Amino acid sequence: MVAPSGASGWRLWAGLVPVLFLFATAEEGPSTVEFDVRPGGMVHSFSRSLGDYTCTFTYASQGGTNEQWQMSTGVSEDNKLFSCSVWRPQGKSYLFFTQFKAEVKGAKIEYGMAYSQAATGGQSDVPLKAEEFEITETTVAHKEGKFRSELSKLVIVAKTPHDEL
Fold first, then answer.
1. Do 109 and 135 meet the contact criterion of CB atoms below 8 Å apart?
2. What global pTM score does this model have?
């Protein structure tokens, strides 16, 4: 339920997160869909469900014009992990975000991270500073008064409830 700490923790999650998108369930596989992030200061939401799990990205932003973003969701083959990523494929967003929240339903967050820049064209992901956002059991969200309004990517890996035999 926390972001990784230390260099080894970052390497572990950096290697694990891309692998999660290769997982599929028997009924539904991972999916990636495009959506518009719209400026104007109004609160907007975009959601995707995969089986019993839902990921919702809620935000408000200012400046510029609509940007194309993507949301990917996936469930591991053993149905123990649900992943959700929201990002701008071009890397850096030029919008000024006044708030953001990514929320999962049906699972509890094991790992969450927010980035001011998404990796593209040889550039690396640039994580937000820890004081800019908070992680709970079900959300990754901005911290009022601390968030510096730059957002380009969110990643969540959540543990799903499962019955033990």
1. yes
2. 0.83
Sheet (strand 153-159) strand order = 31-37, 67-75, 81-87, 153-159, 108-117, 126-127
Closest by CA to 158, choosing from 77, 84, 47, is: 84
Token duo for residue 39: 């400026």
pLDDT tens profile 4-21:
545 444 444 444 444 444
CA dihedral (63, 99, 5, 119) positive or negative = negative
- Residue 10 sits at φ, ψ, to 5 deg, of -65, -45
Question: In degrees rounded to 5, what are phi and psi of residue 76?
Answer: -65, 160
